[in-house]
Amino acid sequence: MKLTVRNNFFETNSSSVHTLIYKNQELEPSELPINNKTGRIIGHLDTFGCEFDYNDQDMKLSYLLTTLYYLEGYDLERMIESWDFRELEDALIEYTGCAGLEVADYGDPYIDHQSVPYYGDTIVPWRKQDMLNFIFNKDIVLHSEYD
């Protein structure tokens, strides 16, 4: 991850902040749900509010997918066709040996921080190794809270 300093950028008085906290880069075996018929990991979009710690693999994958959904204009088909989704899917295939990644029912996803995450101004790691570290490192915790 890198620190981003934003100059001349519209700011809001956001009522929440999300932070990643981790100590090491040891990856755990996958505990992600698998579709028994297709062999694909089942991901989902979800709601991420404030004052929670998200530390299980399924929720961290869901956070990546939900952020990508926002970045791709709330368009599921566009998200699935995006370079970032393919990178995430490739990383999961390489690490777990699964057949791919599918997105299950998703309802009304929501992330309670910036109105829309922006590339370069988001905590989401988009390099393969960083995505794997985020999902499978038990010491990485996504912490959200009000300011």
Walk me through the structure.
The structure is a single chain. This protein has 147 residues and is α/β, with parallel strands linked by helices. It has helices spanning 57-71, 76-81, 83-96, 128-136, and strands at residues 17-21, 40-43, 47-48, 52-54, 100-103, 110-111, 141-145. It has one domain (39-145). The protein is built from 4 helices and 7 strands; from the N terminus they run E-E-E-E-H-H-H-E-E-H-E. The protein has a 3-stranded antiparallel β-sheet, with no helix packed on it. It has a two-stranded parallel ribbon with strand order 2-5. A two-stranded parallel ribbon has the order 3-6. Helix 1 crosses helix 4. The radius of gyration is 15 Å and the shape is globular. 22% of the residues are buried.
Give the radius of gyration. Answer: 15 Å
DSSP summary, beta strand count: 7
Structural class by SSE content: alpha/beta
Characterize the biggest β-sheet. Answer: 3 strands, antiparallel
Distance between the termini: 22 Å
Helix content: 25-40%
Q: Tally the helices: what do you get?
A: 4
What is the H/E order? EEEEHHHEEHE
Strand content: 15-25%
**Overall shape:** globular
Number of domains: 1
The order of strands across the largest sheet is 1-7-4
- Low-confidence segments, given as residue ranges, are 1-13
Mean pLDDT: 80
Structure characteristics:
single chain, 147 residues, alpha/beta, 3-stranded antiparallel beta sheet, two-stranded parallel sheet, 4 helices, 7 strands, 17% strand
